[in-house]
Amino acid sequence: MFKTLDRITIDPEVFRGQPCIRGMRIPVTLILKLLAAGKTNKEIKDDYPEIEEEDIKQCIEYAAWLTSEKNVAIAGSHK
Description:
The structure is a single chain. The chain has 3 helices and 2 strands; from the N terminus they run ββααα. The chain has helices at residues 28-36, 41-47, 53-69, and strands at 8-9, 20-21. A two-stranded antiparallel ribbon has the order 1-2. The chain is globular and about 30 Å long. The protein starts with 7 loop residues before the first strand and ends in a 10-residue tail after the last helix.
């Protein structure tokens, strides 16, 4: 079941149109990179007090949705 990603916003006037959290200048890519680097949700929320648990969850959901939409060749991958 697909849920609306109401916390992910794209505005050409905010952060050069990159997907951000709730119109703030906190891009989705930042949260994803922090998670990939091993930061916990609590650490992210401590570093960015305006971030809520649901924001982090929707960043992950947004990334999952994007990767399901198209196939991209990755260097070194096999067909």
